[in-house]
């Protein structure tokens, strides 16, 4: 795969993480003074790690777009950690959703009390799958071809100043000033 496609895939995974953290992960009934109310928690409320990890996945995608070989390797490691964080956050909620729902209940009724068993949606399970995909994306990141940053615009060894037909006087004048700055005589033939 090309670097652009891998970067796009990582950015899409980050956006999906944001979307899943905005959706409802669980709900329960809460007693209030007048009647029972249903309270819900989103993925971001259930576990703020999901939102933070999704933002970090997006940042990793941007770093991949701009970085060289070492940045790519660091990004691959970061994706493994971020995928694990997304999965662990969803698993933590699924193990015991009651504390997060009780916190939401306290905001509605002032009492940390819920009725019945909490209902959990499919979104935390999809977040676990997304975490696995983010971690698996690290394999693609390691395999993309890298270009040394900064080398794209430098002259190659065989390209010398005198043999370049597109040079004009302005460029030559700048080279002369550079030679003066290095302490060289610009009137000398081989000042570079």
UniProtKB/TrEMBL annotation:
Keywords assigned by UniProt, alphabetized: Membrane, Transmembrane, Transmembrane helix
Biased composition range(s): Basic and acidic residues: 164-192
Recorded superkingdom: Bacteria
Family matches, as InterPro entries: Trp_biosyn_TM_oprn/chp
Pfam families with a match to the protein in the record: Trp_oprn_chp
Transmembrane feature ranges: 51-67, 74-94, 122-142
Region Disordered: start-end pairs: 155-192
Listed name of the protein: Trp biosynthesis-associated membrane protein
Lineage: Bacteria, Bacillati, Actinomycetota, Actinomycetes, Micrococcales
């Amino acid at each position: 795969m090309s670097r652009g496609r891998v970067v796009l895939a990582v950015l899409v995974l980050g956006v999906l993480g944001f979307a899943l953290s905005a959706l409802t992960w669980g709900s329960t009934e809460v007693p209030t003074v007048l009647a029972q109310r249903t309270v819900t928690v989103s993925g971001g409320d259930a576990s703020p790690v999901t939102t933070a990890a999704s933002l970090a996945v997006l940042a990793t995608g941007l770093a991949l777009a701009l970085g060289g070989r070492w940045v790519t390797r660091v990004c691959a490691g970061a994706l493994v950690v971020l995928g694990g964080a997304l999965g662990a956050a969803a698993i933590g909620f699924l193990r015991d959703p009651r504390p997060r729902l009780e916190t939401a209940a306290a905001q509605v009724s002032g009492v940390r009390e819920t009725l019945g068993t909490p209902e959990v949606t499919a979104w935390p399970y999809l977040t676990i799958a997304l975490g696995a995909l983010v971690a698996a994306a690290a394999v693609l990141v390691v395999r993309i071809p890298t270009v040394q940053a900064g080398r794209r615009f430098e002259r190659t060894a065989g390209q010398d100043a005198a043999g370049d037909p597109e040079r004009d006087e302005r460029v030559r004048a700048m080279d002369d000033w550079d030679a003066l700055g290095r302490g060289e005589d610009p009137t000398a033939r081989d000042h570079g």
